[in-house]
Structures are given as structure tokens and as C-alpha cells.
Amino acid sequence: MESRVADAEAREAQSAAAEGPASGDASQRLPVSEPLGAARWKLLRQVLKQKHLDDCLRHVSVRRFESFNLFSVTEAQKRTTEEDVAAWIQYTSVFYPEYSISLRHNNGSLNVEDVLTSFDNTGNVCIWPSEEVLAYYCLKHSHIFRDLAVCELGGGMTCLAGLMVAISADVKEVLLTDGNEKAIRNVRDIITRNQKAGVFKTRKISSGVLRWDNETDVSQLEGHFDIVMCADCLFLDQYRASLVDAIKRLLQPRGKAMVFAPRRGNTLNQFCNLAEKADFSIQRHENYDEHISNFHSKLKKENQDVYEENLHYPLLLILTKNG
Ligand SMILES: C[S@@+](CC[C@H](N)C(=O)[O-])C[C@H]1O[C@@H](n2cnc3c(N)ncnc32)[C@H](O)[C@@H]1O
Predict the structure, then answer these.
(1) How confident is the model at residue 66 (pLDDT cuts 50, 70, 90)?
(2) Which molecular-function annotations from GO does this UniProt entry contain (predicted)?
(3) Closest-lying ligand 1 atom to the alpha carbon of residue 231
């Protein structure tokens, strides 16, 4: 039940970002209109107190679509100790079942300190559909990463897509990053556990906190990567320009960025405008995979109540540096 509460908080953060003025600061994303505003404040209070949600409040959140079902999830290990707040689960690709990884969600709790002191917790509550699709896409096209240095930005509490590159591709190196420290602590534990199990193809896999708006974080890796990728990171008004700048600076001169994100109002377009101004060429793909397109059409037809194309269907952007 705790995870449901946390999940609801993230949905809330994202739906607020999609609906209204988006900002990187969780408190600023809370809308003020009544009675929705009051209900959302109640929702946040409940997150902080770790209380159960009642049915009525759950309706306040708009995101109820969870997944494209590209990975099967099984419990890998029961909770054993007090410190082991979240159970390990096994994520296996449905289409490429030879690729499987042990993951841990940060679903134990989002405590008061986490919410008040960290700048964004949307990556700490679930793997969003864009990340799932990016992970699937990386498995399907694992050959494109051969001998390349790859960095995932804003990968959240698992950086699932970067992990898939590390287990499937003959990649030179993979760096998994997010701006949230709690997310990266979880990613570090995931790497350690899977290294022990010997599932990575590359020995050079690492993780670290990388804030797009932090000069030191970006400058120490300037020009280092052939491919930078991210999923569902375009909706934060406050950080969109920094994200474009970070992608540009982290890439080597002929590098490419692979970005999956839903339209979320005008946020994807705003990202594209900024990227063009930063001298990127952009290819925009709506139908990049037959299976995902078919699934999307089916969801649109059969689940209009939970599936909203604007919020849930990830488009693929390929950014190439000009010059
Ligand atoms: C919606 S979550 C997406 C997480 C993951 N990619 C997924 O789709 O499941 C957005 C992520 O961007 C990260 N983020 C937001 N602003 C950031 C910044 N300025 N620098 C680095 N990461 C940031 C958050 O910590 C969060 O994990």
C-alpha cells in the first residue's frame, strides 16, 4: 500500500506538470484551484504521513495507465531485513527473454525529508512508460551501441534503459545518471547486485548524480559520449534548457541523442525548439516500432478512460549535433 501512495504522488507530480505551469520544484507543481487543489493538498499530506489513499482521492490522479507490458516482473527475493526496505524483482524482456535483470524499486517510502529536500522525486516512484519503451528499443537495436560510450540522463531509480544497453550490447562504457541522489543510491545497488550475478556484457558500467544544470557535473564529462539518452525528461520547464545544453556538451562532435517522451501538452515541442536553436538536427518518429504502434492503437480504441495519447505515448526524437 505504501508504494501505491508513493505512486500516486508521482502521478500527481506528473499530471500537475502536464496540466499547468511545470516546474522542477515539487511544491510549486501543486495546483491551487479548488476543489481539485484542496484534494491534491490532501493527497500530498497523505503521502507525507504514509496513510492509505481512499478511493475518492485516487480519482484525483489522472495517470492510471501503467505500462506497455514490455517486461515481465517476478519477485526475485522476499524482504529479509529491516534495511532492505524494498523487495528485489526480476525484470525480463517479453520480446527478448534472454535479457533479464534484478531490480529494486524505491517503493519503500518517500519520507518527509526526501520530499522536502530533494528537487524532483518523479523518478523514484515507478518506471514510466517512456523508460520502458526506451529500454525495449535499446534491446531491439543493441547493435547500434557497439564500441560506443553511452550515458543515460534522468534515468530515475533504475535507469532501466541504460541497464539494458549494459546487458545486451558490446558497448564501450555505460554511465547511468539522475539528478536525484536517492535514485542513484538505488541504481548503485542494482549495479552491484547484477555485477555479482555476472549479467553485464561490459565491465565499464557506473552510476552517478548528474544534474543537467550543474556546471561541474556537466563540464567534467564534456564531449565524452557517443550516445546520450533519456526518457520522459522534457516536462520540467525549469530544466528543459539545461537538459538541451547538457546533451549538447556531453556528446562528442558526431554524437547522437535518443530521447523518448510523450507530447505532454506543448512540452515536447518546446524541447525541440530549444534543441534546434542549439544547432541540433532533429528526426521525430511517431511510428518507430510496429509492436508499440499496434499496442498504442489497441489501447486508444479499448482503454480511452485510462490511456491518454498526449500523456502516455512516447515519441522518439533523434538529435544529431550539426558541425
Ligand atoms: C519523470 S522522471 C523519469 C525517470 C525515468 N527516466 C523514467 O521514465 O522512469 C524525470 C527524471 O528526471 C530527473 N531530473 C529532473 N530534473 C533534473 C535535473 N535538473 N538534472 C538531472 N536530473 C533531473 C528526475 O530526478 C527524474 O528521475
Answers:
(1) confident
(2) calmodulin-lysine N-methyltransferase activity; heat shock protein binding
(3) 6
